[in-house]
Design brief:
Layout: E1 4-6, E2 15-18, E3 39-40, E4 47-67, E5 74-80, E6 90-91, H1 116-120, E7 123-143, E8 153-160, E9 174-179, E10 182-185, E11 191-194, E12 198-209, H2 211-224, E13 230-233, H3 241-246, E14 248-256, E15 260-263, E16 266-275
Antiparallel strand pairs: 1-13, 2-4, 3-8, 4-7, 4-8, 5-6, 5-7, 9-12, 10-11, 12-16, 13-14, 14-16, 15-16
Length: about 280
């Protein structure tokens, strides 16, 4: 199990540009940490999201969170050394990060277009680069031939340098869907529901951290606290994109246990997160 964490979203330091944008849902919404603020295109033709930095940054991870992309969508990530370069340092090519492998489909039961978007009305696309690159421009191209909304929608773009704990997260890490709806019994005897929002929570134990792991977690807690979100993928690059989606979250820390020395320079702690 490979766990990856991005605790500094470098996209917030960039200027963002998109091929098209609905005036009510501009590209700048991609840099806000609120799901109710989204970017929407005005076309379902191929779209590009470009991030340009004044000073070079180091990145190895790109995430589009809270999207309406379907299982047929493809994403391409290009990393350029300088803003005006035409030859990229890295080109992922068009890849599908949402469709389930055919061997994992229950034929006759599961639809071929199944993703977590089908159930939760939101999908998150993660691309983990083979190495870290020093860059001043990252371009993200998306295309989806089966989208029916008439537009592309993305809530947040997260770009940064991810960290992976040496031994991964402990078994027993959990992701839950919290439902704030309330049920009330009416005088008639009917159970009536006031439907409210849903959001994810995650609990992760890191019980075998090295000194280097401990430093990363300490710096993350000190920098982000409970006020700035982090992206956690419990099963990064899993062969099942649906499983990877269900085990990742862009959220804020709600509780952090003490970092404890266990023995022989090994440390442990626990992290609890709540989706933004």
């Amino acid at each position: 199990m490979t766990t990856k964490i991005i605790y500094k979203n470098l996209a917030k330091e960039a200027t963002v540009q998109t091929t098209t944008a609905n005036s009510a849902y501009p590209a700048t919404n991609l840099l806000k940490d609120q799901k109710s603020y989204v970017w929407r295109s005005t076309s379902v033709a191929q779209q590009s999201i470009a991030l340009v930095w004044e000073n070079a940054v180091i990145v190895n991870s790109v995430v589009l969170a809270f999207t309406n992309l379907t299982a047929a969508s493809k994403i391409r990530v290009l990393v350029f050394e300088n803003p005006l370069d035409t030859v990229p340092l890295y080109d992922s090519g068009y890849i599908n990060r949402l469709a389930e492998p055919l061997s994992d489909i229950d034929w006759g039961d599961d639809p071929l277009g199944l993703t977590s978007y089908s159930g939760e009305k939101s999908s998150t696309v993660s691309v983990w680069l083979p190495q870290a690159y020093e860059t001043k421009r990252v371009a993200i191209q998306i295309v989806d031939d089966t989208i029916t909304d008439g537009y592309y929608e993305v809530g947040c773009v997260v770009v940064g340098k991810s960290w992976a704990p040496s031994l991964g997260a402990d078994s027993g890490a959990s992701v839950s869907i919290e439902d704030t709806s309330t049920n009330k019994r009416a005088d008639s005897g009917d159970l009536r529901t006031e439907r409210m929002c849903q959001y994810r929570t995650m609990n992760v134990d890191l019980s075998s951290m090295s000194k280097r792991d401990r430093k990363f977690v300490w710096d993350m807690i000190a920098r982000n606290g409970k006020h700035s979100p982090i992206f956690v993928a419990l099963l990064a690059d899993d062969v099942s994109p649906m499983l990877e989606q269900s085990a990742q979250i862009y959220g804020k820390l709600t509780n952090v246990s003490a970092i404890t020395l266990v023995y022989n320079d090994l440390f442990n702690t626990s992290l609890s997160l709540e989706e933004i």
